[in-house]
Amino acid sequence: MDAIEPQRQGLFATCSFAVVRSAALSDKDAESLASELKLHGGEVVIDNYPESSLDLRGITHIVATTYDFPDYNACCDALIPVIKPTWVSHSLAKDKLLNPRQYNPDPRFFMSDVVACVADLPQGDSDAIAGGILAMGGLFSTKLTSQVTHIISLSTDSESCLFAQRKKLKVKMVLPHWVDDCLKLGRKIDEQPYMLPDPDILKPSMEKAPSGRLKTQVEGASDPDPSRQKPKPDQPRKLQKVFKKKTVMLAGDLGISQYLRGILHGMIEVSGGKLTESVTEADMYICKYREGKDYKIASRAGKDVGNLAWLYFLIQTDEWTSPLRRLLHYPVARNGLPGFSSLKISLSNYSGEARTYLENLINATGAVSTKTLRQDNTHLVTAHVMSEKCAAAKDWGIHIVNHLWLEESYTRWKMQSITDGRYTHFPKRTNLGDVVGHIQLDRSVLEQFFLPDDTTDTLDAPAEPDPMRQVNHNTVSARGANQTKKPNRRPTSKDAPAAQLLTPAPAKVIPTGKENVTPSTGHSRKSKEVASARLHDMTPDILLYEKERKRVGGVVYGGRRKGHDEQSEVGRKRSKQLRTLGIICTTDPTRATHLAAPYIVRTQKFVTALAYAPLVISTDFIDACLKENKVPDPEAFKLQDTENEKRLGLTLKSSRERAQNNHNQLLHGRSIYCMENVRGGFETFKSIVEANGGRCMLWRNRKGQKVSSGRTESEAGLDTDANDDVYLLTDERNENKPLICRFKEMAEGSQKSARIVLTDWLLETAMSQQILPTQRYEV
């Protein structure tokens, strides 16, 4: 008779762990951690890379200090949580298994090392901060404990801050502004400018530009073709593990000499690896471009596909890293990113490798990177706005964005809208060069654009499992086979706060105020992300944070205006009730599918949202949802406002049809200037122009100012008739007449026709979604 195995005892008795070694978790530390886990009943194996991959059968938890290890994607596909070693000590301290999501080493959960408590803030602000931190992987405590890393407070006079000072606790006391700026950017930024008792961001501006860190995430990954980093034969290096038992193929498109190929061959062979000419035999495929039969075979077979810069990085560090981890470690597209070839982009306030990285990233998109800024530049990418380039760009109507716009356009393989506030946010006293390189490539995007569903390039490929395509049987049984057509993708910081993937039912419309609404939707996608599903329980907190952050006073300033508590509470209850019906609130018109309003209004949100072709419905729809607690057919609530349609000479139906055909390009190629003192404000009209693809510039009558030549539009093969006219938005104030005369002179000097029009022309053009004749609007 077989002996009965004794039942394991201890906190981790139901768990089986795999410990992943790395530069931050040495062999000694891994053994110590394994002993601790075994002491409390856990089963433990330590990875044997590069000898073999992890055997995930029966494993319940992966312990790692980084998400950058070979089996990470397989762990995600198998729904096995990856946790940092601190999860072990914290679980033991609380004598219970903690939620692993807050201990994920994935940097996209950028608050994962934050344990925050709030001191002396209104309950609404405290709830909002908690929601934002929890959504991005952090922890929130209602009281000060030894595990708290940050106290969120407006001053050091609070009880928690005084106690922390008295006990000399290692805790950072920061303003709520810090949380707000981190969540706006989707990155964790330096706390120093926000730290109490004397935060820099509250001091008067001294016109001193914030300095950046010397080292960034792009060290060794700033150039996809790093000729300056070629290994030298007189400096041989003994590699211990990175190529051990690995077979490497160097593609022909690298264009390297036989001499260099020999050097690389020697390094790889000495470390236990070998070179091959067959992609089916290779473990690593090194190429320059995302194209060709071998590239597709290697990618679909789940092999490591990287460029020469990635290979050099492995040689220099002797540590494996995913080629998807850093944008310029992966092969580039020969023809660049669609839509970028007509762009001229300049950089400002980035330095060192961060600047080199962004210059090469611009080149990889197919745009032109310029050292100097001229009027024919289309974009200025800057780390902060305190520079002469930024002042000139504002006067010339050049789009001013941070590097997130460039990085996320590249990773999503689609030009991102500059109307997204994340790309135009520049926190005071923060140099955004510090957070360059905190984003990685998306496997599902690469599959969609570079690995189309055909079999012509895989006839000779081996029948091995493809992690980019394989069906996870656990997912099928839990969620249905129709959810497995695309690979699971880890959530980005942009995904989580918007809660687009977390709704329990297809979303219909999102109200954001009494006068008008810029809605969003959560329509079912072919493949929902496993990681996003894990965030499902955080959705109410995310929505609460978004609602609180945007109100007057908000999270940043702490406290509400007198008498607003009850109204805000009602608004939150309505928002959460709508969410249960699958309706999400948003103020981002780019996500809008429905726009709710009591009647046609000429507000910034309403006019801007029309450019994205939403279905315009009456606010009666919202009332019906709340009253009946179900979603009626939105088509039955189309906004009927014949009086205003007749007055404005448009119909909402025709406007929507035109917007669908315009694709946000109604004003593309048009240069539109705006008076500084115009009613409604320059920023209002700028947002409307940019939502419709135009360029809006502030007219200040500066000497030497010229109209943009429009050369980039011509080179792109676009209709350049629009460039014959240049517009100035104004009103009928007498003090504006001298500026109008000077504007005409500038236009004539640039061989353009000046159109001096009332702001009504822009509003009604945007609302009708067609270029209206200027005659009846001209001043």
TrEMBL record:
Boundaries of every BRCT domain copy: 7-105, 105-196, 238-328, 340-423, 709-779
InterPro entries: BRCT_dom (IPR001357), BRCT_dom_sf (IPR036420), CellCycle_DNARepair_Reg (IPR053036)
Compositional bias of kind Low complexity: 496-507
Classification via SUPFAM superfamilies: BRCT domain (SSF52113)
Biased amino acid composition, Polar residues: 471-485
Biased composition (Basic and acidic residues): 225-237
SMART domains per the UniProt record, alphabetical: BRCT
Pfam families noted in UniProt: PTCB-BRCT, RTT107_BRCT_5
GO biological process, one term: DNA double-strand break attachment to nuclear envelope
GO cellular component, one term: Cul8-RING ubiquitin ligase complex
PROSITE patterns referenced in this protein's UniProt entry, alphabetically: BRCT (PS50172)
Segments of this protein annotated with the region Disordered: 196-238, 456-531
PANTHER family associated with the record: REGULATOR OF TY1 TRANSPOSITION PROTEIN 107
Protein name according to UniProt: BRCT domain-containing protein
Organism whose genome encodes this protein: Capronia epimyces CBS 606.96
Taxonomic placement: Eukaryota, Fungi, Dikarya, Ascomycota, Pezizomycotina
